Amino acid sequence: MRKKIVAGNWKMNTTVPEGVELAKAVAAKAKEVPAGVELVVAPPFTHLALVADALKGSPVKLSAQNCADKEKGAYTGEVSVAMLCSVGCDYTILGHSERRQYYGETDAKLVEKTKLALAAGLKVILCVGENLDEREAGKHFDVVSNQTKAVLYNFTAEDMKNIVVAYEPVWAIGTGKTATAEQAEEIHACIRKVLADKFGAQVADDTTILYGGSCKPSNAKELFAQPDIDGGLIGGAALKAEDFIGIAVSF
Ligand code: 13P
Q1: Is 94 helix (H, G, I), strand (E, B) or coil?
Q2: Is the CB of 173 inside a 6 Å radius of any atom of ligand 1?
Q3: pLDDT of 52 strictly over 90
Q4: What's the predicted TM-score (pTM) here?
Q5: Which CATH fold would you assign to the domain 4-66+78-248?
Q6: How large is the average pLDDT for residues 17-40?
Q7: Cα separations in angstroms, 176 against 3, 8, 79, 84, 101
Q8: Which residue is closest in CA terms to ligand 1's atom 1?
Q9: Hey, whose CA ends up nearest to atom 7 of ligand 1?
Q10: Would you call 165 helix, strand, or coil by DSSP?
Q11: What pLDDT was estimated at residue 76?
Q12: What average pLDDT does the segment 126-152 reach?
């Protein structure tokens, strides 16, 4: 059975003290979440070490929001996977649409980052998703399939054990406009088929695929009831422990 995950992407929000408070509040409420649902928080880089301390003794996992595409050296402003591991990260998010859109993240870079992350023992949450124009042009299946293939077809079935996919339609991120459960489910099923075509049915069946985009306590239940939706990657609602946990108890 594949793992169910609810991950909070804090993006560029909270100061370090606020982030530590939020992590403590999530850790304190983690016991409300059904067994078998993994909680992950992804604070900004500056927060990671202190948030790791705040999460000690709790089951909540720690994720970065990005990593460098180089191992180490003269890359001013970058943060390596070794650095992330050294502060206790379990995961890194990669390929978020905000990074693709605003920071020129390419599929080629994502392949390099994923390779480095997996080699260092970090799990990867790889984000894919179409924008509004692509959806309105009816290209969403092709866009998401191509993004998935462009990165993941460079990896092996063994690597897939440490990779989670997150489907985040760009038009649903931070807009309050959630994909319907049907819209999300049909794309999740499509991603699983893309994985099955390369890695076989078992690997596809074992891969956790998260939904992200205006997910909140009021709509999580319907989304998580879909057969191919294994949890959520949560933005805005992850900034309040009560809402974040309110989503995770929706399984
Ligand atoms: P919102 O939940 O704020 O729409 O953000 C989703 C997201 O981008 C998570 O990575």
Answers
A1: strand
A2: yes
A3: yes
A4: 0.98
A5: TIM Barrel (3.20.20)
A6: 98
A7: 27, 16, 31, 32, 19
A8: 235
A9: 235
A10: strand
A11: 98
A12: 97
Q: Which residue matches tokens 């088929």?
A: 193
Mean predicted confidence (pLDDT) in 1-21: 97
Among 96, 98, 105, 130, the active-site one is 96
CB 71 within 8 A of CB 80: yes
**Long-range CB contacts (< 8 A, 24+ apart) of 149-154?**
149/194, 149/198, 150/107, 150/110, 150/111, 151/95, 151/107, 151/110, 151/111, 151/114, 151/126, 152/126, 152/194, 152/195, 152/198, 153/198, 154/111, 154/114, 154/115
- Amino acid 35 reads A
Q: From residue 29, give the alpha-carbon distance in Å to each of 7, 48, 187.
A: 14, 20, 31
Amino acid at 116: L
The encoded tokens of residue 73 equal 């050296």
Mean pLDDT of the chain: 98
